[in-house]
Amino acid sequence: MRVSVSWLREYVDLPADLPTGDLEQALVDLGIEVESVVDLRESVTGPLVVGEVLEIEELTGFKKPIRFCRVDVGAANGTGEPQEIVCGARNFAVGDKVVVILPGGVLPGGFAIGARKTYGRNSHGMICSAQELGLGDDHSGIVVLPEDVKAQPGDDARPVVGLDDVVVEMEITPDRGYALSVRGIARELSHALGVPFRDPADAPAPGATAEPAYPVDVRDTVGCDRFAARMVRGVDPTVETPGWMRQRLTVAGVRSISLPVDITNYLMLELGQPMHAFDADRIAGTLVVRRAEAGEKLTTLDGVNRTLSAEDLVICDAGLPNALAGEDAGVPISLAAVMGGETSEVLASTTNVLFEAAHWDPATVGRTARRHKLFSEAAKRWERGVDPALPLVALEKAVRLLTDLAGGTAGEEVLDIDHVAPRTPVTLPVDLPSRRVGVTYSPDRVVELLEQVGCTVTRGTDRLAEDPGTVGTAAGGEVLTVTPPSWRPDLTDPADLVEEVVRLDGYDRVPSVLPTAPPGRGLTWQQQRRRAVARSLAERGYVEVLAQPFVAPELVDQLGLPADDPRRPAVRLANPLSEEEPLLRTTLLGPLLGIVKRNVGRGQRDVAIYEIGTVFHPRPGAGAPPAMGVDRRPTDEEFAAADAVVPAQPRHVAVALTGEIEPAGWWGAGRTAGWADAVEAGRAVLDAAGIPADRVTVRAGERAPWHPGRCAELVVDDVVVGHAGELHPAVLAALELPRRTSAMELDLDALPAAPLAAGPTISTFPPALIDVALVVDDSVPAADVRAALVEGAGALLEDVRLFDVYTSEQLGEGRKSLAYKLTFRAPDRTLAGEEAVAARDAAVAVAAERFGATLRGA
Predict the structure, then answer these.
(1) Can the peptide bond before residue 705 be classed as cis, meaning omega within 30 degrees of 0?
(2) Same domain, 433 and 290
């Protein structure tokens, strides 16, 4: 929100000598984030003058249109001769008055202006746009001064364009929609500085008449609980927006379009009431306010043809037949509260204008804006809440401005369809602010501050203490019945009123008291496990990522999950950030693989990433959560009912890798990442989690989205806790990932607590190292052969490690050789060679009996 201080002064008596620093601090103390306070008088230095375009020569032969202009700047250049300036803008003509900065001037950002040769001509200065002057974001063309500007060529342009003012830019939080207006900011400053405030909405406005200004049928009074309209006929379409209005719009970052549209934008900035202007001659029948039918089309004012959702609110023209929605439903001509449509917009020839001012449901507007990625200034205000008492006042002001500036006749008929529910009073124990904040507020002070906000306050007593769990005071204590004003839809609970008391009285009065840290035992074993797992993966070269937990509905099909897979049902968000990803993830792999795709697409071919996070599984039969306010602690029954609806959220760990796991270089060839690396990542996780190796089994498995022949199950105590391997080719194609991309996902919450680890026994006696190569069927897992060797070797076996897998024609088709390095050691003596060989033979015998293994070469 950008606003000039001169505009604020019309409604609040700011001190004439108020420093910009004090103005900024006053807003910050009220909880309004100030982006900048710019004194425009200091933003442009040097000669900035009014110029009149005398000649324009179009230069050709360049990649973009270039103009060589001769501009009358009076005596400002010291010679009185026309100034020669090269300019690329196209929105001005001979005779227009423009803003010129001469050599020696400096624009905002330290951009110094001089004389130079460009495009084959000498250019002495620059014709300025609003963005270059720091007045707004419009850089589509230069500033063309209105015809009614009295300034002559050579006059100082600062007061003409508003560079003699101070501009405040603020970031308004979502709960303070009223502050997105001059009215709201002026009221806030009156509270902060203790100066009088004049409400621009405190003006007489005619009420509804028996004959409406235009026939309107509101079919959804929940989405639109108030709809008002006025008509102005016989407007002069050639009248331009006056300079003072255009200047204020420019400072606010709003582009001037036409007088009727500019009036609606001007009043939106002043009052906070978004409006819309229709060309009445382009509407064929009754206006119908309804929900759209899924699949209906509407071309909005930005030229985009949009497909509507069944949740969108639209304004339709019933004079146009619509086969999809019904004969009397009409064709959508406006995306209600967001943006109008092309078919009814005000044109340069419009003479009859229908002004509309309504009140729309904030949640519906917010979802529509996000669904269509259309965050207009109107939608920004509606989703934060707009005063429902404003429509008639806004219409009266719009009608008067248009008739005063462009003539025409204001219709006596007023339409006002009003279904606005009265505000619900809030009961506030008078001592609640003191108890919650730790600052003593007298009852009179609490009442005074709430009335400053605009609340109606009635004092009385109540027996709130008889209701367990409430925020009440002692039985018979004083309470306040507070009715919030219409412009504060955020005040719905006692806690909101407490916040207002603290805010207006001053946050600086609240003492800063550090709470005493309760005693504890440090990290829980679950936290220690998660840190150990993260550290283990990072040490192996994996990079941690934090993916968004939101996924698209089609992800389960892209991953190839079967119809009965428990990962298919997902929790749908009631208010998603994007309609394209409205579901919560049931597996970490979807978002993780999306990050792999993004990195590969940006040229990062070797990717190894991991994430530790929660997945979300809906609870079967879960209904809606119970409604709970913020005025008291939930009862045990309410908490249990709410907890029963919350989805199960087990914590998983997942890795994804593609490209080279070992890079190539002068030292030799690299190694491409594969399924074995994903399996090893799973083993590393289990080891870091403190699970002993003898409780871990890795065996062949089958689970989407892995390749059936290259998928391993990670088993702890006969319970499958995860899977690892190479992803299915169909999944890689659907997600546009490189071949051989591999992944691992493991449920950390399914792992048992790590047993108490005994200290290692260190033997001082030398080991006996024996290698064995066993030939087995190709279908026999190497892990099963290893387990057989461990079982047969007995207590003397210290370690067994697979170091080679070999296949050849000599071994025979369907056969493979597995080479293991066996380490034998006795804790109390040096092993004799015969003992080690006997243990080796016993190990091989078990493998032979169980899998038909034979010694290679035997």
Answers:
(1) yes
(2) no
Exposure pattern of 552-574 as b/e (b: 16+ CB <10 Å)? beebbebbebeeeeebeebbeee
Residue 518 DSSP code: P
Q: Does residue 758 fall inside a structural domain?
A: no
| Model confidence at 549: pLDDT above 90 | yes
pTM for this prediction:
0.71
**CATH classification of the domain holding 472:** 3.30.56.10
Q: Mapping DSSP to helix (H, G, I), strand (E, B) and coil, where does residue 124 land?
A: strand
User: Given this model, what pLDDT does residue 264 score?
Assistant: 97
Return the axis-axis angle of helices 833-851 and 782-793, rounded to nearest 10°.
130
The answer to whether 23 and 274 have CB atoms below 8 angstroms apart is: no
Q: How many angstroms separate the Cα of 406 from the Cα of each of 166, 233, 275, 587, 656?
A: 30, 11, 19, 62, 66
Distance CA 285, CA 808 (A): 84
CB 307 within 8 A of CB 295: yes
**pLDDT over threshold 50, residue 629:** yes
Per residue in 173-229, pLDDT (tens digit) is 988 999 999 999 999 999 999 999 999 999 999 999 999 999 999 999 999 999 999
Which residue in 440, 551, 561, 409 sits closest to 502, CA to CA? Answer: 440
Answer whether residue 608 is part of any domain: yes
Give residue 464's domain range: 428-509
Do 34 and 54 lie in one domain? The reply is no
Q: Domain total for the chain?
A: 6
Residues 395 and 278 both lie in one domain: yes
**Helix, strand, or coil (residue 472):** coil
Contacts of residue 674, defined as CB under 8 A and 6 or more positions apart, other chains included, come to: 661, 726, 740, 742
- Per-residue pLDDT of 267-289, as tens digits, reads 999 999 999 999 999 999 999 99
Burial class (CB in 10 A: 0-12, 13-18, 19+), 370: middle
Domain at 350, CATH number: 3.50.40.10
In this prediction, residues 421-435 reach a mean pLDDT of: 94
Angle at 106 between CA 101 and CA 110, to 5 degrees: 145
58 and 36 part of one domain: no
**Do residues 270 and 382 share a domain?**
yes
Q: Do 714 and 696 contact (CB within 8 A), yes or no?
A: yes
Q: Which pLDDT band, with edges at 50, 70 and 90, does 464 fall under?
A: very low
> Residue 370 is inside which H or E element, if any?
helix 362-372
Q: What share of the chain is helix, strand, coil (3-state, %, to 5)?
A: 30, 25, 45
Residues 59, 64, 67, 68, CA torsion sign = negative
